[in-house]
Design goal:
single chain, alpha+beta, 38% helix, disordered N terminus
Amino acid sequence: AGCDRLWNVDRDELLRVLRAFEGVGLEYVLIGATAMGFHGLVRATEDVDLFVRATPDNVERLRAALGAVYDDPHIQDIRTEDLLGEYPSVRYYPPTGDLYFDVLTRLGEAASFDTVAAETMEIEGIHVRVATPAALYDLKRGTVRAIDRQDAAALRERFNLGQEE
């Protein structure tokens, strides 16, 4: 129904990227505001946050997927050593400049591709791995950013989460 307003990012561009992720078999999970959009909670964002499985083959699939969407030699700057290293995140700005990607293999000790609860959702025939509302709530509720606390409150209210506290 309200698919056109799932996100405040360029929807067509996002769908092209998600289709490319599926096409190469990327092992990933959307987190952050883009994932919240899949669950019906929309807020302005310019970035797409995702966990990827921390393996060299999977990082190569990430580069292949991005390369299928963007004609950009800087995609090769996304290095396995960075995503498997001490600070396992990379920010990729496509040449379009409309949105950007925060690619992580883990968030400190708090969460990683392997530990975040996710479900497969479908949009326009594309299968998308998305963190569950409870997982998003857990990722956001303990942070210092006000926007994350607002997101956690919205998730708690919409999905009746965290009532045991």
